[in-house]
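If you are new to this repository, start here. Below is one unmodified record pulled from the training split, so you can see the exact layout before writing a loader.
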Amino acid sequence: MAGLRTYHVFISHSWKYPDPYETVKKWLDDASYFYWSDYSVPFYDPLDANSVRELKTKISTQIAKCSCVVILAGMYVNYSRWIDFEIDTAIEMGKPIIGVRPWGQERVPKKVADNSDVMVGWNSSSVVQAIRDYSV
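And here is the target side for that same chain:
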C-alpha cells in the first residue's frame, strides 16, 4: 500500500528465552497496515563478532538504523547487562524506547521504567500503536 511507513525496530530479547521475542515479532507481522523491518539479533541470525567490544559495536550499528527500540521488561533481571547497554545506546542515539510489561506483571525494573518513552501492556495493539506513535 503506497504511503505507509516502514518502521525499523530493534527488539531487545534473550536467545535463551526466544518466545516473547517471537510473539512480538508475530504481532508486528500480523498487524494491519503496518510494515516493519527487524533489526534485532535473533539466535538464528547472530552477529559475527569475536569479542564483547565488537559485539557492542555491531549492536550499536543495528540500533542506529532503527526507528525505535522495544524492551521486553520481563527479561531484564536475567540479562540486565545487555539490556542496560541497549537502553544506554538508544538514549545516546536519541532513539525512542518502548517498554513492554510481561503478561500480568504490574511492576517493571526501574531502569526500564525510567528510560522508556512509554510503557505498554503485553498485547499486540498496544505495542503496534506505541511503535507508530513514538518512532523517529
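Two things worth knowing about this chain: The longest strand covers residues 6-12. The two ends are 21 Å apart (CA to CA).
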